[in-house]
């Protein structure tokens, strides 16, 4: 079933992990894609994979911290496909970790810039285009960290990602009357490069796995299916939500 047939979608952080899996799923569901990330080679391979599956995508590498890049991604969608219907602002970093008393001002600011400010700048221009057509779906990747669960040593990551929930609610209220839906997913642990960076020993991976009611971590493809729901008309009456996709981590105490 082509749940995104005729739709044009923009995805940042598309070179790996959740973003890459979502791009492939969106293409399989009929969307035309604009994919962005820093690494051109990985984006090119994604476009090749999508084309091999019968889909259509175009890539533009750049730095999400740049408002010019946010504008360029939207402009590319309009130039190539004539419109923009869906935006998945997924790019993010762990940021400077360690005891908070030792985190530098620059390190904290970088996490805020990449995870929060860049998402705002992306949405600013994405929504600006969507309102021209009277509809659209904007999705952010937040996290359960700092929302339903806390870890020591990741204050910058938790603060910047939690800020996306407030941004989601504000944009949903502001642009709902114009047909724009805005939601955030809050993943639990997902088997990505960032997850492996944070959990680089057997003891750490066992601990994280056991936090989840399902006693495992997610695959990027599982998260992609939740993003698909929020992008599609299946969620036509869903906006302003912080949607936990956490394998039961929020309710597990054993």
Give a brief description.
The protein contains eight helices and seven strands, in the order E-H-E-H-E-H-E-H-E-H-E-H-H-H-E. It is of the alpha/beta class.
Description:
The protein is an alpha/beta fold and 254 residues long. The chain has one domain (8-251): 3-Layer(aba) Sandwich (Rossmann fold). The chain has eight helices and seven strands. Strands 3-2-1-4-5-6-7 form a seven-stranded parallel beta sheet, sandwiched between helices. α1 (17-28) crosses α8 (220-231) and α3 runs parallel beside α4 (105-130). It is globular.
Task: Give the uncertain stretches in residue-range form.
Answer: none
Instruction: Count the domains.
Output: 1
What letter string, H or E per element, gives the SSE order?
EHEHEHEHEHEHHHE
CATH superfamily: NAD(P)-binding Rossmann-like Domain
- The share of residues in extended strands comes to 5-15%
Widest beta sheet: strand line-up:
3-2-1-4-5-6-7
CATH class term: Alpha Beta
CATH architectural category: 3-Layer(aba) Sandwich
Q: Helix segment count?
A: 8
Mean pLDDT: 95
Total strands: the figure is 7
Shape: globular
Specify the structural class: alpha/beta
The whole-angstrom Rg is: 17 Å
CATH topology: Rossmann fold
| Largest sheet descriptor | 7 strands, parallel
Terminus-to-terminus distance:
39 Å
